[in-house]
């Protein structure tokens, strides 16, 4: 299996193997890596998907993407180990909302949001590859919410990786901060920066742009553009369809921010999973659902909502889909994105828009509508759902056709967003013991000014080896 960049010219070179793509993240030309060919889901695996355990299915589905880079036994071990820490024996259980509408719960991992599913595997793959190369890495990241704690939890205790996560002091929720600061691992470090989330992101960019520092500290990233994260997310689409074992092809409804999750659904479909449609569920920051409706990418200002992990205007993973809509023409993809960055808008051709609409539909919910869904689901099913999941449920209900089988992806545990749940339903959901425990554990956090020299000194000082 070889990978190419979304910005490579046609007639590109031989491509990279999985291990290089894993460690590199972004391609040197600024593009994102995509597999040169999409492996087909064998009919044997498709029919076994309903009876295999989750990690067994994951290892078998990841194997063609990993290729020769990791031997099969090691892959199976890493995947089994990654999902052993999940609080539910099914890893990603399905729960019925009604006869034809199911929730796929992706939030039973150690930090109670769906980022765990990919990051728990990716951190192990990273460590394994660094071991083989006798090398080390320092992961740096900025977070405003779920990604930071999921990455820290996944890296905690890994031999060859250290991690530093920057968050804006006083601007994350209490529970999100505590998930980072109460982690008991000597190789994972939370830093509160005196600044905004954008300042944190700029500091991370500045570290990567400081070439001498980057080489000295062996800087690396595990952000959502890393192909391995997308690959690990393809699994639960196949898993859900296998478990439902319905004759009808499934429609998946996906609460969307950076387009990583729904892109994995698109790859499941390209692998041969019978899929009716993919529904893109947006909050008020609805650039993606507008793109599906109008064929135009048009940026608006980011508005803070009750579903903060979807408060995004430029969805980085969309580039992978655009590359397909341009039939693998990297130059044309680059030029559309450049136009979008320069002018804040860019239009697909009528033919590209038609192809997009053949597979995707979507809509948006504002905060008031999101609270309404949370309240109604609680009244009808006695179930709490978090605001991200509620956006998905609301969009699924609006878009579904009679007789369509719909699976909505539940991306965060309701107890992670207790304030919104209480506002909508009047009660607080029970927190799982591991989440409740963060309230009592001592916090460990370093406060630093918004100053690149201070941040780089800190990273140097905590680096092992
Ligand atoms: C990250 C996240 C999303 C958005 O996922 P993308 O892959 O960025 O589209 C949705 N819900 C929750 C809870 C998240 O943490």
Descriptive overview:
The chain has 465 residues and is an alpha/beta fold. Helices cover 46% and strands 16% of the residues. It contains 20 helices and 15 strands. The protein has helices at residues 18-24, 43-48, 54-66, 72-84, 115-133, 146-155, 174-181, 197-209, 211-217, 227-244, 260-270, 287-294, 318-325, 330-343, 350-359, 367-381, 387-399, 418-425, 433-436, 452-462; strands at residues 3-5, 33-35, 94-98, 101-105, 137-142, 161-168, 188-194, 219-220, 250-255, 275-282, 296-298, 345-347, 360-364, 405-410, 446-449. The strands form four sheets. A six-stranded mixed β-sheet has the order 3-4-14-9-10-13, with helices on both faces. A five-stranded parallel β-sheet has the order 8-5-6-7-15, sandwiched between helices. Helix 4 (72-84) packs across helix 5 (115-133) and helix 5 (115-133) packs across helix 6 (146-155). It is globular and about 60 Å long. The two termini are 33 Å apart. The model has no long low-confidence stretch (mean pLDDT 95). Pyridoxal-5'-phosphate binds next to helix 11.
What's the topology here?
Elements lengths: L2 E3 L12 H7 L8 E3 L7 H6 L5 H13 L5 H13 L9 E5 L2 E5 L9 H19 L3 E6 L3 H10 L5 E8 L5 H8 L6 E7 L2 H13 L1 H7 L1 E2 L6 H18 L5 E6 L4 H11 L4 E8 L4 H8 L1 E3 L19 H8 L4 H14 L1 E3 L2 H10 E5 L2 H15 L5 H13 L5 E6 L7 H8 L7 H4 L9 E4 L2 H11 L3
Parallel strand pairs: 4-14, 5-6, 5-8, 6-7, 7-15, 9-10, 9-14, 10-13
Antiparallel strand pairs: 1-2, 3-4, 11-12
This protein binds pyridoxal-5'-phosphate.
Pyridoxal-5'-phosphate binds next to helix 11.
């Amino acid at each position: 299996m070889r990978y190419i960049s979304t910005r490579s010219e046609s007639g590109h070179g031989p491509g990279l193997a999985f291990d290089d793509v894993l460690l590199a993240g972004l391609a040197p030309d600024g593009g994102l890596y995509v597999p040169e060919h999409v492996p087909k889901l064998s009919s044997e695996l498709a029919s076994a998907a309903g009876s295999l355990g989750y990690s067994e299915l994951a290892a078998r589905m990841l194997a063609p993407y990993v290729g020769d880079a990791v031997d099969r036994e090691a892959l199976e071990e890493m995947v089994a180990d990654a999902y052993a820490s999940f609080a539910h024996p099914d890893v990603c259980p399905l729960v019925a909302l009604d006869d034809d509408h199911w929730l796929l719960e992706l939030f039973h991992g150690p930090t109670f949001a769906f980022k765990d599913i990919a990051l728990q595997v990716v951190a192990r793959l990273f460590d394994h590859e660094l071991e083989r190369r006798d090398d080390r890495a320092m992961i740096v990241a900025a977070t405003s919410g779920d990604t930071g704690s999921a990455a820290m939890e996944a890296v905690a205790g890994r031999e060859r990786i250290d991690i530093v996560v920057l968050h804006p002091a006083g601007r994350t929720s209490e529970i999100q901060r505590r998930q980072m600061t109460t982690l008991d691992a000597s190789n994972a470090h939370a830093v509160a920066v005196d600044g905004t989330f954008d300042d944190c992101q700029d500091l991370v960019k500045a570290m990567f742009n400081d070439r001498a520092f980057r080489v000295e500290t062996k800087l690396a990233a595990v952000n959502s553009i890393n192909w391995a994260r997308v690959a690990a997310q393809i699994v639960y689409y196949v898993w859900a369809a296998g478990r439902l074992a319905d004759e009808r092809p499934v429609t998946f409804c996906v609460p969307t921010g950076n387009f990583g999750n729904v892109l994995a659904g698109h790859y499941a479909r390209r692998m041969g999973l019978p899929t009716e449609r993919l529904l893109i569920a947006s909050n008020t920051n609805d650039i993606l659902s507008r793109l599906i409706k109008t064929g135009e990418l048009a940026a608006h200002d980011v508005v803070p909502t009750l579903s903060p992990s979807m408060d995004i205007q430029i969805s980085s993973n969309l580039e992978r889909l655009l590359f397909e809509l341009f039939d693998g023409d990297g130059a044309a993809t680059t030029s559309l994105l450049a136009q979008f960055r320069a002018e804040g808008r860019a239009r697909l051709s009528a033919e590209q828009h038609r192809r997009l609409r053949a597979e995707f539909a979507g809509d948006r919910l504002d905060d008031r509508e999101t609270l309404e869904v949370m309240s109604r689901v609680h009244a009808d099913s006695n179930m709490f759902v978090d605001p991200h999941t509620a956006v998905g449920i609301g969009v699924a209900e609006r878009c579904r056709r009679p007789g369509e089988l719909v699976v909505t992806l539940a991306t965060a545990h309701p107890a992670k967003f207790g304030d919104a749940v209480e506002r909508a339903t009047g009660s607080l959901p029970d927190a799982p013991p591991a989440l409740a425990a963060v309230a009592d554990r001592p916090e460990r956090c370093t406060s630093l000014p918004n100053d690149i020299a201070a941040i780089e000194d800190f990273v140097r000082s905590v680096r092992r080896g």
